[in-house]
Amino acid sequence: MLLSNTTKSDDSGVYIGIDVLFGRKIYWDAKQSPRHHILIVGPTGSGKTIALTAIATRLAKLNNATLAVFDVKGEYPSLMKFFTNKNAFVWDVTQMPIPICSCDEHQEDVIYNIRLFINTLNLLYKLPTYMRDQVHEQLVRLCRYCHESTLDNTLRGYLVEEPEAIHTALNIFSTGSESSVVTHLLRQKNTVIDLGRLFLLDPKATAVATLYILKRMLKTLGGLNTGSIAKVVLLDELWYVAQSAIEDLVNMLIRYGRGYGISLAMATQSIDDLNPYTDTIVESCGAVIALSSPSRSYWLRLAKHLNLGKRGIENAVKFVEQGIAVAKLYPHEKPLYVYIDPLD
């Protein structure tokens, strides 16, 4: 329900902001929503990142959940400090490679991680079957003997026919780490996965890192079988994942809905970034928010997802200020014109 009688995020809902037309406070009752995911759309300079962070951190606070942020812009360590009053653990994957296996992991978990890595790499680079088999065999051997190395060093000879760009991805993965400390931090602490340097080198390698870490995290958290949210995951600049692995993203949104303890909070610049699965992604989100733009075509493309008629589009075009948005919050179908208040 939409509530206006409280002044901060509490058991009644997540504070979204101020109704531009009526001046009331707007809340999203996420606990009553069968869909905990959030989608924010907005052009550069619209306040998209601030809106995403504000709402996601309030949702996490409401549920006593931790946050994991995939950061390609280098903005989130300071944003997390501002919105949570705590320093998040920052993990730069170019400095601390992503572990495929650690010396203290069970064999079945190691095999799962290896298969996940190969499947993720294949999703973006389309490796031949014989090459996938060779890589699998080599990784099983390295993990069995707890050999510590980056994958670029150990697999380069197996991927000589592949483009050089694939080695950027291999260089951020490793085998034989002493413990699975990174996995535990992702589960137990607020974590910023710093992908900024990697993103400048290769957006596709960044998508590999994001998908692999996210899927391992979902596997760890997916067994919670709880209606409350345990982890809020922020995916800003969603387009870099969507353009390479849109079907995987859709599967995550559908599978990890209510009952799995996970909320994906996503932001992207254009609704077109989500084609051809825009309808499915929007329907999987309990909160859909579009930041302001003077472009009529921008609102025309968003109209059906926000239930905007002709008059609604006219109003949306008029409200062109940073932080102003049109929001559709489950279970209500009527769109709201709201200022996304960064202060709780």
From TrEMBL:
Helicase HerA central domain location: 26-86
Signal peptide: none
SUPFAM superfamilies found in the cross-reference section: P-loop containing nucleoside triphosphate hydrolases
Name of protein: DUF87 domain-containing protein
Organism annotation: Ignisphaera aggregans
